[in-house]
Amino acid sequence: MTFHSDKLRDHACLIVHGPDQPGLVAAVTALITRNKANIVTLDQYSDNPEGGEFFQRVVFHRPELSAAFPEIEADLEKTLSPFGMEWRLTDQSIPKRMAILASTSDHCLLELLWRHRRGELPVTIPMVISNHTRVADDVRSFGIPFFHVPSQGPDKSEAEARILELLKDNVDFVVLARYMQIISEDFLDEVGVPVINIHHSFLPAFIGAAPYRKAKERGVKLIGATSHYVTKDLDEGPIIEQDVARVDHAMSAADLQARGAYVERAVLSRAVQWHAQDRVIRYGNQTIVF
Amino acid sequence: MTFHSDKLRDHACLIVHGPDQPGLVAAVTALITRNKANIVTLDQYSDNPEGGEFFQRVVFHRPELSAAFPEIEADLEKTLSPFGMEWRLTDQSIPKRMAILASTSDHCLLELLWRHRRGELPVTIPMVISNHTRVADDVRSFGIPFFHVPSQGPDKSEAEARILELLKDNVDFVVLARYMQIISEDFLDEVGVPVINIHHSFLPAFIGAAPYRKAKERGVKLIGATSHYVTKDLDEGPIIEQDVARVDHAMSAADLQARGAYVERAVLSRAVQWHAQDRVIRYGNQTIVF
Amino acid sequence: MTFHSDKLRDHACLIVHGPDQPGLVAAVTALITRNKANIVTLDQYSDNPEGGEFFQRVVFHRPELSAAFPEIEADLEKTLSPFGMEWRLTDQSIPKRMAILASTSDHCLLELLWRHRRGELPVTIPMVISNHTRVADDVRSFGIPFFHVPSQGPDKSEAEARILELLKDNVDFVVLARYMQIISEDFLDEVGVPVINIHHSFLPAFIGAAPYRKAKERGVKLIGATSHYVTKDLDEGPIIEQDVARVDHAMSAADLQARGAYVERAVLSRAVQWHAQDRVIRYGNQTIVF
Amino acid sequence: MTFHSDKLRDHACLIVHGPDQPGLVAAVTALITRNKANIVTLDQYSDNPEGGEFFQRVVFHRPELSAAFPEIEADLEKTLSPFGMEWRLTDQSIPKRMAILASTSDHCLLELLWRHRRGELPVTIPMVISNHTRVADDVRSFGIPFFHVPSQGPDKSEAEARILELLKDNVDFVVLARYMQIISEDFLDEVGVPVINIHHSFLPAFIGAAPYRKAKERGVKLIGATSHYVTKDLDEGPIIEQDVARVDHAMSAADLQARGAYVERAVLSRAVQWHAQDRVIRYGNQTIVF
Lengths: 290, 290, 290, 290
Fold this sequence. Notes:
Four copies of one chain form a homotetramer. The longest helix of chain A is centred in the C-terminal third of the chain and has 24 residues, at 253-276. Chain A has nine helices and 13 strands. In chain A, 44% of the residues are buried. Chain A is an alpha/beta fold and 290 residues long. The radius of gyration of chain A is 21 Å and the shape is globular. Chain A has helices at 5-8, 24-34, 65-80, 107-117, 136-141, 157-167, 185-191, 211-218, 253-276; strands at 11-19, 38-46, 53-61, 86-91, 96-102, 123-130, 146-148, 173-176, 195-199, 222-229, 239-246, 280-283, 286-289. Chains in contact: A-B, A-C, A-D, B-C, B-D, C-D. The B-D interface holds B 45, 202-206, 218-222, 224, 238-244, 248-250, 285-289 and D 45, 202-206, 218-222, 224, 238-244, 248-250, 285-289.
């Protein structure tokens, strides 16, 4: 799934979300037709076709999309307001701007940088920020700006302020690629964009610190990783993706951690890709992933 | 995924297939709306949005569906003919009639009977036919009619004629659940309904007889199973589903076969379920599975 | 992996367990040689070769094993006592006697009965006990005795007493195949043989009741099942085997449960097979699985 | 599974292979004991305990291993010759020297370099050779020497001669990390060390060129990758490892290739790791992997 800009030129993604009701799909598809666009993919889900919640993602192709964008938005406003639906229209040829926060581990970070270079993530990466300098050379070898924001001591407010300053108006979402610092509620309030984390366990098992040690102690036969949106409740945000790997009695906690790194980087990469493609819709503490 | 008849009452499944073109989805969804139906699920795929082949599956709910069925069909005819589309409308509350052909192996057969009893396959099973009697008691313990049609000797035409007689007008599709006889071209021409097979290898690897022995000789590290529609070309029909299991050097060909049985029954069951739910569309030698 | 009695004739399984120390493996293998036996498989594990805990499983072939059994036991006693090792020698041609406790769900129960009939579980099944009669006919169709022990009301002591009476001296281990009753500490003390349970979640996630509902609420992307030895701490016993299946937002809690049933029956069957083959060694709250 | 040199100091790996016979394991373990070594891990397999082929891998710890090495070798010679066994003793603290041949694809190459840097591959990498210069900077950023050996035109003999010159006495094995050139029989004769390849299909399916295109045409539901030792018969050498990934009808051949890259790099990395750890024994056209 590579993302050549020419492949995505004149492609828009429409997310519609709200109370399910008859005629909704017909209204949306008629709107697309009368705006001279052609549907490329369409996914939808209703948690109950009789009065439930409705979710839809449509990718359509419209020649000269950017010129027509305001008109389509106006039509959407007019058409969907009576239904009481929320909607969001994005130009797929404009990649989202993604900042990565990392610490000393490189496996999730390098995987994202490499997939990006390979053309598999429809994002730009304006910056990588770390509280250590260990990954600086690697990051810059990909041509990505690196910023070092140290974070010693119990008071993280200065570091967070500095990070917010760097992010401010520069990014569309933030990825915590094994960033081993707890994010404050204030930071979340201020940052104003989605924050995606990778947790090194199969949540809700082994919430909190040192999940691989806990997994070893409990004697599990599989370890996992979970990517989720960050909320104020640590390790409790909406789950985007999870996966597991088989382990056995002969593996130490360090072995579990080494094996787990491969699960973490794969799970985080998929979550980032889906988010960047507007495939993930948050609803309560859950996600719809199209 | 259980199939309570009341859950499927007044539900229809519409399959649309043909040349992709602007306005098609809008036309279909408008048709559904004006026929007072509500879309439950909608899947679609186009192999090229600019002039490719278009495939769509819509499940909709329409109160008093059976009364409205002819009207909706007439509307579909009128609406989709100008687009040059093929379509098929089915009442989901009417289960498909599935015949099973088996030999002596019971693993695929019993899995289908058990999933059916459990309410996970939206089918009726008017008959199981076998060239052996070994599975007769098991079949009848599920309350399913069993017919023994012996098939000795090189000339299978008499056995096939007897089977065709049993199937004639009684079934909507046929499943070969490890039926170890080669089906003739004449049989396929006569039977007039889809025939689904389970092959005990990851096709196209190990085509033909004794795939587990060949897998052992080749020293593969995974074995697989493939469910496909039967065509005149042995082991070459459109693939519906495949899966694999890990094996190692310590396993004999008999061990591979025992392990493989679990893959076979799972793969065949999924293929049968998807076919019964009208999720599988054949196109050339491939399948679209929604 | 089928278990023909002739294939296991004159085969013994030796489990050795205790403090790791130089010369241990040499001592065991020399003992096997001087007792005219030939090693078929040998697995071992030490959690630390310098002063850790040592675990070994050796299957050996010894013509006229039953005649030689007392001699070999005496030699083991003499040889391994100086090392301070625990050991256990079993004649593999004598299948373990397994009782199954079930309630109304049939998926785990039938899978065990069917794998047993197929020759894949080296056990005899002297009885199935259920607090309901729903599975009685199925059980008896496999030629297995069925006993109904009702268990209404809050006081389970009478039912447990009746079950213990049935089990007493008749079984080598007990399997709870979705037996939806909490086992009392007294029962565990009295029963005197290992008890294996299948829990319908990926432990330690969703401990306790209604795990599929909790999984749906948490929005996980995988569901799992865990087979473990039963201890006094509910859902906390040593884990034998775990596995998972992928789910998505469109699945209800009932759908998760239906999907999970396939994971449960596979996980429990593997755990039972491994236990019956003396492949599982308990150590603290963990298992070594060879 | 990281490989700290201090963790492997004074560790030896012994591979024993030949006709199974009583007393063999006892003889080997007694030898290890009398040479003052302690067994760390022991794996063995016999394809038939009565007169079959026997394979064993023992890792043992012997203080001051290098001083004792010649003595242990002499003892092995004396002890195992009467049994007619082949054996090989290696000092695990001496990493194997691995050359990588690559073309323009970087996914397998970078994965190996990164796992090596991470300490997960017990090898040194004296050189990467490519017929293109595209990966040169990446390779050198890992501190690994890069050599460009162009390979235009039908006659590859000059390029192969140049490569052989570079490899000569400098490496213990060669990895073809998506090296898109066919290796001549002469090259294989000359190189004198094992050569490991990654093939971009689940062999024996889609042998030869363009497997992802063929997979798309056949409509398979899983794609795979296979790592194998290179022999004179193209794509027919002993398989070390295989794995698969799920695909669907909506993916183009290019999408299959992109998805497949992740399978390829994982499969090749595992095969390389196991080879480097002396876990793989070739026997006929198969492998025993301990």
